[in-house]
Amino acid sequence: YAKSMKLSVETAARDLRHGFFSVKAKNLRCYQILIAHHADDQIETVLMNLCRGSGTTGLGGMKREAKMGKLTIIRPLLNVWRSEIDAYIEERGLKFREDASNATSEHVRNRVRNDLVPNLPEVFGRDPREAILRAAQLCREDAEFLGMVVDNLYRMTVTKSGALRFAKVESVEPISLKRRLIQRWLNENEVPDCGFAEAERVLSLMDIENGPAKVNLPGDWHARRRAGSLFLEAPKGS
Amino acid sequence: YAKSMKLSVETAARDLRHGFFSVKAKNLRCYQILIAHHADDQIETVLMNLCRGSGTTGLGGMKREAKMGKLTIIRPLLNVWRSEIDAYIEERGLKFREDASNATSEHVRNRVRNDLVPNLPEVFGRDPREAILRAAQLCREDAEFLGMVVDNLYRMTVTKSGALRFAKVESVEPISLKRRLIQRWLNENEVPDCGFAEAERVLSLMDIENGPAKVNLPGDWHARRRAGSLFLEAPKGS
């Protein structure tokens, strides 16, 4: 599926998962999905996003609530430590199932969990997990506000046909907002796998003298500059 | 000095350093100070700030340029790796001096440098330092924009006498901006050592029913709620 759709494995897996949940949700008339991610998962996500070069949004880690089409994903345990969950289960003699992929130590997340995080208290002279959780919350709050700002900008910049007005994009300052605006546009059009590099690539179209007139995007999408606007071209046959 | 001024050692040291540089700058008529912080220092700062619970501003790390009163602090080597500097020095047979405190391995920064950072490539399967540097840059850009937004809010909220109008503060959403607004006010008045906890403490004054009417701040400052505004009280004898 990933190969035929020219998607990353992560995005392809998310699409398929989304499809599965959507069908289940419709059958069961049940549009809220609770996910068991806990505070230790959040720490790992933040550290992984930092070492992947994510900005404020990524450093905010997972959200407590997220929309996925009609579905709402909720993570009620995001501020609860794994040890607290274990103690609760133990105390009440509850049954549980371990995700099989948790045991595979070859994955980055598992190395972060087993090798990096346990080492932090010695480095910092105290357990920094609560602090990392707070840093993530502050980033999430800032990202949320920036999202609101960009929503407004987007409404002012997009044309009826879904193109972006060149002059409007150009007037957006600073560069971080311009990048978010492009990302908002790519997300709105469901161009997959778009991050920093893709937004920068689209922004290179703004350089009329030296930039390209057309750039490639993941999933066989293209962005093009024409007649004072930026356009997206969907993959052929889609 | 720290003790008598009721300051943290870090802030006291910064004040004294600032005083020293100010005198030198005046004598030499030389208001720009170049500091040799390099990209590896930046990585350490970002990791330390994350594990200290800093938000977007702290995760942005050190700035390339910063104002310190009349002085401008410039860090021209902030995107250059230590190894590149070493190679340059070696190549040209330049003399240099090692900061004596670099050798003290008891400090957190040194443990981050010697124990944490060298371990990261193994955890992530590649050297994540470039990515961390980019994450910091994205945060710096976002923090810069948020700073501009808060500057505008501050001008609209502060009274001629330097108090903050209650109703105006209350209307600021989301909470992250409210906190930044308070921090802006505390910085403007040079209340020392003010971070997240201090901003939150001042915001507790906004709760008329259950909050306090006066809170303590570092350096013997106080914030007080009175007649629809928030006031700062300077330390006695200052």
Structure at a glance:
The structure is a homodimer of 238-residue chains. Chain A has 238 residues and is of the alpha+beta class. Chain A has helices at residues 9-28, 39-50, 56-59, 82-92, 108-116, 120-124, 129-157, 166-171, 175-188, 196-203, and strands spanning 32-34, 65-68, 71-74, 164-165, 214-217, 221-226, 229-233.
Question: What's the topology here?
Answer:
The structure is a homodimer of 238-residue chains.
Chain A: H1 9-28, E1 32-34, H2 39-50, H3 56-59, E2 65-68, E3 71-74, H4 82-92, H5 108-116, H6 120-124, H7 129-157, E4 164-165, H8 166-171, H9 175-188, H10 196-203, E5 214-217, E6 221-226, E7 229-233
Strand content of chain A: 5-15%
Helix content of chain A: 40-55%
Question: Count of helices of chain A?
Answer: 10
Largest sheet of chain A: 4 strands, antiparallel
From the structure provided, what is the oligomeric state, counting identical versus distinct chains?
homodimer
Overall pLDDT confidence of chain A:
91
Largest binding interface between chains = A-B, 43 and 42 residues
* Coarse shape of chain A: globular
Structural class designation of chain A: alpha+beta
Radius of gyration of chain A over alpha carbons?
21 Å
Order of helices and strands of chain A: HEHHEEHHHHEHHHEEE
Strand tally of chain A is 7
Give the termini separation of chain A: 15 Å
Low-confidence stretches of chain A: none
> Which strand order do you get reading across the main beta sheet of chain A?
4-7-6-5
